[in-house]
Every structure is written in structure tokens, then in C-alpha cells.
Amino acid sequence: MSRVAELQAQIKQAQAELDDAKKFERADALKRIKEEIKFYDFKATDFKGLLKSRVTQKQVDEFLAKKAADAKKSTSPKKSAK
């Protein structure tokens, strides 16, 4: 096995271990963060611009336009070649 292949295998293994560790520690991190938010009386406005928690009207309009365009494409009559 070449050195590059060995390193790629190690990276893949390390990434899998990292993913497992994140899953394991995620619940504790969220609990700690919630406790600190409550302790310091943070409000949603304190995080404005840091967290994307709401969908904007522009995003809704873009989604609806794309959905309408897709529906129009799927219902338009197809011309058959003779």
C-alpha cells in the first residue's frame, strides 16, 4: 500500500471517529449552551446575524417560484416527434 493510500485510510478513519465523538458530545454541549443562555438572560436578538433560525420572505418567494416553474414544466404538453 502506498504512503498516500495509507494516509487517506487514516484520514477516513479519523473522520469517522470525529463524527462519532461529535454525536456523543452533542447532547451535552446543547444542554450546557441552553443553561448558559438561560443564566445570562440572552435573547434571540442577541444572536441576530450569528444564527440562521428563520426563513426570509425572499427565500419563500424563490422557493415558490421554483416550485411553480417545476410544476409548469411537468404539466406542459410534450410534442411528439413524427
Quick description:
The protein is mostly helical and 82 residues long. The chain is 68% helix and 0% strand.
List keywords for this structure.
flat; 82 residues; 2 helices
Gap between N and C termini: 58 Å
Determine Rg (CA atoms, Å): 24 Å
Number of domains: 1
- List SSEs in N-to-C order: HH
**Mean of residue pLDDT values:** 85
Helix proportion range? 55-70%
Characterize the largest beta sheet: strand count, sense, and whether it forms a barrel: none
> Helix/strand/pairing class, anyone?
mainly alpha
Residues in β-strands, percent? under 5%
Number of strands: 0
**Count the helices. How many?**
2
**Per the principal axes of the C-alpha atoms, what is the gross shape?**
flat
The unreliable regions are: none
